[in-house]
Design goal:
One of its GO terms (molecular function) is metal ion binding. The protein is an alpha+beta fold. Helix content is 39%, strand content 20%. It folds into two domains: 1-32; 47-207, Glutaredoxin (3-Layer(aba) Sandwich), CATH 3.40.30. A hairpin with a 3-residue loop joins β8 (175-179) and β9. The model is unreliable at 1-31 (pLDDT under 50).
């Protein structure tokens, strides 16, 4: 009987430790995640491990920093304007989500950073973003600068530059949500519809 009681107490104590440990892990080192109810993505080191400081060139030719760019909730996407299918579709989806958010009273923007600065000059990027949405910012720079920015978000890409004018670029298709003073809080897959994306973004904005 005594052995049984000890066993029961041991199981109970283990359960308490497991539940308490899970609670502590979910809270994180800061003592709580204000966006816990909004999250579905999992990032090694947390979403806060994505992003950082950069200086790039916008579509007007002006040099800008990350703090000058991310002044409102931003849907950040890495791609290239010569992309034959994925980039235009993903960027159009992000643009549509901005309209849905605007209808909800949420002022957001999209940010497009090229991974192909050789062809994506400020003028080319400007033509791309202006055709998609007035609240889409296009950024380019030197190859070293755009590569460094891409790595900040752990974004994969591979230039297949064969010397022709029509080479392709392999790249990841995530869209990242960056909030002013909060940094990167989430990433979204390309299978979300504009309405679904807007709903997810709104959750983070309202919780911030």
């Amino acid at each position: 009987m005594k052995d049984r009681q000890i066993l029961i107490l041991g199981v109970a104590a283990t359960a308490i430790l497991l539940v308490g440990g899970a609670f502590w892990l979910n809270r994180g080192p800061s003592g709580g995640d204000e966006f816990a109810q909004c999250r579905t993505g999992v990032v090694a080191g947390g979403a806060g491990a994505l992003g950082g400081a950069f200086e790039l060139t916008d579509e007007t030719g002006k040099r800008v920093t990350d703090t000058q760019v991310f002044t409102k909730p931003s849907l950040l996407y890495f791609g290239y304007t010569y992309c034959p299918d994925v980039c235009p579709l993903d960027s159009a989806r992000n643009a549509e989500a901005l309209d849905v958010l605007d209808e909800q009273g949420i002022d957001a923007q999209a940010v497009f950073i090229t991974v192909d600065p050789k062809r994506d000059t400020p003028e080319v990027v400007a033509d791309f973003t202006e055709n998609l949405h007035e609240k889409m910012i296009g950024l380019t720079g030197t190859l070293a600068e755009t590569d460094a920015a891409s790595k900040l978000w752990k974004n994969y890409y591979k230039l297949n530059d064969d010397g022709t004018d029509f080479y392709l670029v392999d790249h990841a298709t995530n869209t990242y949500l960056v909030l002013p003073e909060k940094g990167t809080v989430e990433f979204f897959r390309r299978d979300l519809s504009p309405d679904e994306l807007a709903e997810r973004v709104a959750c983070f904005v309202e919780a911030s």
